Amino acid sequence: MNFLQFILNNRSQVVELTLEHLWLVGISTVLAVLVGIPLGILITRKPSLSKPVLGTANVIQTIPSLALFGFLLPAPWIGERSDRLAILALTLYALLPLIRNTYTGIMGVDRSVLEAGRGMGMTDRQLLWQVELPLSLSVIIAGIRVATVISVGMATIAAAIGAGGLGEFIFRGLAMVNNQVILAGAIPAALLAIFADFGLGLLEKRLQPR
Amino acid sequence: MNSSPANHAAIEFRNVSYRLENGRPLLHDLNLEIQTGETMVLLGRSGSGKTTTLKLINHLLSPTGGEIRVEGCSTAEWDVIRLRRSVGYVIQEIGLFPHFTVERNIGVVPSIEKWDADRISRRIDELLQLVGLEASLASRYPHQLSGGQRQRVGVARALAADPPILLMDEPFGALDPLTRVDLQREFLALQKRLHKTVVFVTHDVREALVLGSRIALLAEGRLVSVHTPREFLQSQDPVVRSYVEAFRMNGDLSADRGSS
Q1: How far apart are alpha carbons A138 and A102 in whole angstroms?
Q2: B229 exposure class (CB count in 10 Å sphere: 0-12, 13-18, 19+)
Q3: Cβ atoms of A165 and A17 closer than 8 Å
Q4: Is the Cα dihedral A117, B195, B54, B215 positive or negative?
Q5: How many contacts, defined by CB atoms under 8 Å, are there between A and B?
Q6: Which residues of B touch A117 (CB under 8 A)?
């Protein structure tokens, strides 16, 4: 098969672009976790904020990805380097599933369990760390899973602004009207998404509260 | 006047009222003294204000009028976390932490009170024995227990830090009748040893008569009467009588069916 031949002949570049891809997805997912989970927790504490926060995250998600890259281009520091730009955009896209799942996970914790905890004199912080977060962990992991899979796909578009990743092959293949080159980007990207989905799915199942 | 702690009311409601934010009143001008070491049963239909009364004691709710004094100090002045840790709380749905084993569930308050590990594990052994659970259950999760066992764990957890006051909100309500009678019997035996001040919410007249040293009858957010079980059975108050009649009728009905 010609496609395999192509991969083999360009294996160093395939590996390099895959690593680049992973880096874009990894960094942006970590950033999104660091921002999204605390935001999700915050809106369980201040319900009046839940609508605006979830609404904003929702709106961001509806912006077409190419347009979002374009919007962010004039931003200082960020706009200077295309990988920063790509990471910021991917982070923004990953926020919604993280905020939403953290919020619904915590809100879904059995009320009687919370009441018992509060009635026993647990502080808000103890309730959060010992009860609410452990009991909603699998829902939060599900959010990370969705965010990661979205990011893997979305990151292929980052190549359009020169941020690298497996999208390079795809865009190059489109320009060359060469399916093998497109597949050399698309198939590894799909595999990444499948592995991420599977791995995080296992974790999610393991952490499910009994 | 003798003001020794023994004569002190453990819990005292002074002109307490509670209304929801939308203005709907749940409790009107409640005055009630609960003595140290007694079991005060709050009896009434659902919506009569029993659970509200209970939650005012550990400040899960704060009164919209009047004050509640626990151990001589208003709940508004208590440090709310301290207050709750010195008041054991058992609720109908039990509220065991599903992700904690039995021993961790029982050890919650001691561990947030920063007891050392040895002391906690000794206390857990002691409590398992006290509520009649085998030590082998300590490492199980709540979902692996029967309803009766879960409820025992709930009681053990509430007793863990040896609080002087115990609040119980229909703790045996969801159990099958045989298990319920078992647990009621054990509760009486336990109370004979521990002499806690217990506030016990139920809608079951039989349970109230069996467990209570006194019965406070609530209806539509008002305190109707406070009686010992004996007085309760002999009371001429129409509301009390309706309860007693319902209770007797229940007995008669089952007697009739038994004789036919």
Answers
A1: 10
A2: middle
A3: yes
A4: positive
A5: 65
A6: 95, 97, 108
Give the Cα separation of B227 and B40 in Å (integer): 10
- Do residues B170 and B202 lie in contact, with contact meaning Cβ atoms separated by under 8 Å? yes
- Count of C-beta atoms within a 10 Å radius of residue A54: 18
Q: How many CB atoms lie within 10 A of CB A201?
A: 13
Chain A residue with the nearest C-alpha to that of B57: A119
Tell me the ipTM for this assembly.
0.82
- Number of helices (H), then strands (E), in chain A: 10, 0
User: A123-159 pLDDT, tens per residue?
Assistant: 999 999 999 999 999 999 999 999 999 999 999 988 8
Q: pTM of the predicted model, to two decimals?
A: 0.83
Name the pLDDT band for A1 (thresholds 50, 70, 90).
low
Shortest alpha-carbon distance between residue B27 and chain A (Å): 20
Chain B CB within 8 Å of residue A113 CB: yes
Whether the pLDDT of residue B142 is over 50: the answer is: yes
Is A141:A163 a contact under the CB 8 Å cutoff?
no
- DSSP at A162: T
A124 CB within 8 Å of a chain B CB: no
Measure the CA–CA gap between B156 and B150, rounded to whole angstroms. Answer: 10
